Amino acid sequence: MQSESVVRVFIADDLPAVRERLAELIAEIGGAEVVGSAGTPPEAIAGIFAARPDVVLLDVQLDRGTGLDVLRAVHARRPDIVFVVLTNHVQPQYREAYLRAGARHFFDKTTEFTRIAAVLQRQNAVAQ
After folding, report:
1. The CATH homologous superfamily of the domain defined by 7-127
2. What are the pLDDT digits (tens) for 24-35?
3. Complete edge-to-edge strand list for the sheet that includes strand 32-38
């Protein structure tokens, strides 16, 4: 009998209301659980290393820094984590910088949130 795996997700966004809403939406997807969240780069970096998530949902803008600070600090030591940038800052220069730094996906919060479900389902299939 195969045990059902759950994708562990960490959310890094500067707005507490957005973090809460993302957690609610992830809970509805199924097969995924939020294992932590943060609003600043130092909190996110420490939280990611402590929680050991499979996926990090990362905003470009964080309090007192950027998601790029988090991505650079974590990806160097944990390249296995799937970083999904979910932001309103969808300009090409941001997309290029984040993908170059190791993000696997770069989505627009307002129009591409549904793509998160596909990423989490794919991660769940890989884990099983």
Report:
1. Response regulator (3.40.50.2300)
2. 988 888 789 999
3. 32-38, 7-12, 55-58, 82-87, 105-108
